[in-house]
Design goal:
This protein has 694 residues and is α/β, with parallel strands linked by helices. The protein folds into four domains: 4-132, Response regulator (Rossmann fold), CATH 3.40.50.2300; 152-257, Beta-Lactamase (2-Layer Sandwich), CATH 3.30.450.20; 268-436, Reverse transcriptase/Diguanylate cyclase domain (Alpha-Beta Plaits, 2-Layer Sandwich); 457-689, TIM Barrel, CATH 3.20.20. The chain is 44% helix and 23% strand. The chain is built from 24 helices and 26 strands. It has an eight-stranded mixed β-barrel with strand order 18-19-21-22-23-24-25-26, surrounded by four helices. A five-stranded parallel β-sheet has the order 2-1-3-4-5, with helices on both faces. Strands 7-6-10-9-8 form a five-stranded antiparallel β-sheet. α2 packs parallel to α3, α9 packs across α10 (319-336) and α10 packs across α11 (360-375). 35% of the residues are buried.
């Protein structure tokens, strides 16, 4: 909503790098993806505030020549809406900062209180930002609406209790008035011929009493300012102006040429190219469906369908031919519509479908049918064969999800996940699923995880890491999945936290290593250069017997230790620096290499490189994903690449999701790349490294 890619931009005012790292780790452990900067110079802090957008400022109470009051004063002077939390060393000093203007005062080391205060302030901040954004959007909408009204050929007025409160220029011209003031406050009945007063009042009274009803039309004789009359159609509809309920009136003079009302409605509500509902009309239909859900008349579900890689298709065939393809797709989707479903063209290559059912299984079947319809379609355009695919995101329309924009956003996010996962597939909005999983008991998760270990319900997937400028190698990252008792597959992100809480990660790591070694040995018979990246958890690093176990396991499998690169996250490394140094040293003695992943989120990028003898650095994927459209991410990636080159390390960019990002990474000189754009994770080790052409 207000953060780029879910990142928390944190500014720390502190003269201690160690304490700043502790603050960052506290917020990371609360689930925030932190991008932080630390400063203790007033001038540098002011420049950071002026040049960048921040989400939270955390200030220590005792920084040389810089008091919290000065920081708060600086925020006020610069007009920054940035919550400030003061961290104090002594509880006795707390009261002294109550009137400082900061949002909270927290004792340093009280992690739970800091997490709570930060979460509260971020929630409030993003609420304020959203409110400002909505206010701006409302102002722009009102501005556009007024502009459209003034340029409209239709005579449009707004009335409150039968009195004019606004009229456009066409309305003034139609009735022969010079200025809006001439008609402002005038009853509309004064503009209706006396013989039609009774009919007009009866229609208007019925319309007013019906509340939120459909537009109502009446034909009546109207009177101009000079006393001449004309026959006209008068359409009433409900509206709101500046928060007040009112009536919109549109008057069409029959003498100026009759227009087919059905044709006007068709043009107003439908997309010109495809004939489907346009975005505005579809949102109206979606909101009406949401109203029905709120009233208890049944839930529904929304499909958000996007043609995969359509921009590249458009570049291949040109704008005109791409329009022909879009129209053909619309015709195909229309043919597959079932009773009650609503289809619209929401954007260039985006189609939206309302399915009036709360049955997930039925909706999944309908989504699969639409997916297959597009998948089966082949276009022959300009002598080129265009093989179309699409991705579909699904979200529920219910009492709890009754805002059209929210439902659309949820479905769009699910569709984006489907595209990032390789496209040509269906994803559901995961909020309900995640909330359900979070609420499940530790016992249930322990049962799942133990079954995973004992019954081999865990599965390994592999994602290739390809060379751009680095040494030619055949590298795969090993990724873990869990087949749940409920019949679905869970990614590591869903169960790792539960496994860590249950102290099961060391056992899971050993299962992964044993299984990966078995698969690697078999694969290396045909592809002897293949090497695996394998993640290690914090619990494994703290196991003093792990390296001895690994040495024995390598010997038992007769596997060269150089075939394995172990990796840990930068956060774990910072939290366990001495232990990690020891483990890295011993792993290198065995012949293994070591990698630091999610690199670049710390206060000082170089700190981890200076303290750890690593062979590979994996750039934090939040910087890489969509970096082609984010100058800050580009700058961060460039800085990390340059730093790793100076340190003599191999640099890997993960989460590469599009061609533009890959091209940019190549120009920046990154050694290796990994992501769904290159190849999605697979159970098979089947990537052809010989075909790399980047």
């Amino acid at each position: 909503m207000a953060r780029a890619e879910g990142i928390l931009r944190l500014l720390i005012v502190d003269d201690s790098l160690t304490d700043a790292d502790a603050i960052i780790n506290t917020l990371r452990s609360a689930g925030h993806a932190v991008r932080a900067a630390r400063e203790d110079s007033p001038a540098a802090i002011e420049q950071l505030l002026l040049k960048q957008t921040w989400d939270l400022l955390i200030c220590r109470d005792k920084v040389a020549n810089l008091s919290p009051a000065e920081i708060v004063s600086l925020l006020q002077r610069l007009g920054k809406d940035l919550p400030c939390i003061i961290l104090i060393n002594d509880k006795a000093d707390e009261q002294a900062f109550f009137n400082s203007g900061a949002q909270d005062v927290v004792l340093f080391g009280d992690s739970q209180r800091l997490q709570f205060a930060a979460g509260r302030e971020l929630h409030n901040l993003f609420g304020r930002r959203l409110a400002r954004r909505n206010e701006q959007a409302l102002r722009e909408s009102e501005k556009r609406s007024r502009s459209l009204l003034e340029s409209s050929r239709d005579a449009v007025a707004y009335m409150h209790e039968g009195m004019h409160i606004y009229v456009n220029q066409a309305y003034l011209r139609l009735f022969g008035y010079e200025e809006a003031e001439d008609i402002d406050g005038l009853p509309i009945l004064d503009l209706i011929s006396s013989e039609d007063h009774s009919k007009f009042k009866a229609v208007f009274r019925d319309f007013s009493e019906q509340g939120e009803s459909a537009p109502v039309t009446v034909v009546a004789n109207c009177v101009r300012a000079d006393g001449t009359g004309f026959n006209a159609q008068i359409e009433f509809s409900h509206a709101r102006v500046e928060g007040e309920d009112c009536s919109q009136v549109v008057i069409r003079d029959d003498a100026s040429g009759k227009v087919d009302d059905e044709q006007l409605k068709l043009l107003r509500d439908h997309d010109v190219l495809t004939g489907l509902y346009n975005r505005k009309r579809f949102i109206d239909e979606l909101q009406q469906c949401a109203y029905q859900a709120v009233e208890g008349n049944g839930d529904a579900e929304l499909m958000y369908l996007v043609l995969d890689d359509f921009q590249s298709i458009k570049e291949q065939v040109g704008l005109g031919t791409s329009d022909v393809i879009i129209k053909s797709v619309a015709d195909l989707l229309r043919k597959n519509l079932q009773s009650g479903e609503v289809l619209g063209r929401y954007g260039d290559q985006i189609f939206t479908i309302i399915v009036p059912s709360h049955d997930d299984h039925l909706v999944d079947e309908r989504a699969a049918a639409y997916l297959k319809t597009i998948d089966d379609y082949v276009s022959h355009a300009n002598g080129k064969t265009i093989d179309l695919h699409c991705s579909i995101g699904i979200s529920r329309i219910s009492e709890n999800q009754s805002v059209a924009e929210t439902v659309l956003e949820n479905a769009a996010q699910a569709c984006a996940r489907a595209q990032h996962a390789g496209g040509n597939q269906i994803q559901r909005h995961q909020q309900d699923h995640v909330e359900e999983a979070e609420g499940e008991s530790a016992d249930k998760w322990q049962q799942r995880l133990e079954k995973g270990l004992n019954d081999d319900k865990f599965e390994l997937h592999y994602q290739p890491i390809v060379s751009l400028h680095g040494e030619s190698q055949e590298l795969y990252e090993v990724l873990l999945r869990l087949s749940l008792i409920e019949g679905r597959q869970s990614r590591a992100g869903e169960f790792i936290e539960h496994a860590a809480t249950l102290k099961m990660m060391a056992d899971i790591d050993k299962w992964v290593i044993r299984t990966a070694f078995e698969n690697l040995i078999e694969h290396r018979h045909q592809f002897p250069r293949t090497r695996f990246f394998i993640k290690l958890s914090e619990q494994t690093l703290q196991d003093t017997a792990f390296v001895d176990w690994l040495d024995a396991t390598l010997d038992a499998h007769k596997l060269n230790a150089n075939a394995v690169i172990f990796e840990i996250s930068e956060t774990i490394a910072v939290d366990n620096l001495e232990q990690v140094r020891t483990v890295v040293s011993r792993l290198k003695q065995l012949g293994c290499e070591f990698a630091l992943e999610h690199f670049g989120s710390g206060v000082d990028f170089s700190n981890s490189l200076d303290n750890l003898e690593v062979d590979y650095v994996k750039i934090n994927g939040t910087f890489v994903e969509n970096m082609a459209h984010d100058s800050e991410n580009q700058a961060a990636v460039k800085a990390i690449i340059e730093m790793t080159k100076q340190a003599g390390k191999n640099c890997i960019a993960e989460f590469v999701s599009d061609a533009n990002s890959l091209a940019l990474l190549w120009r920046l000189g990154v050694d290796y790349a990994q992501g769904y754009y290159i190849h999605e994770p697979s159970e098979k080790l089947d990537y052809n490294f010989e075909d790399d052409d980047f």
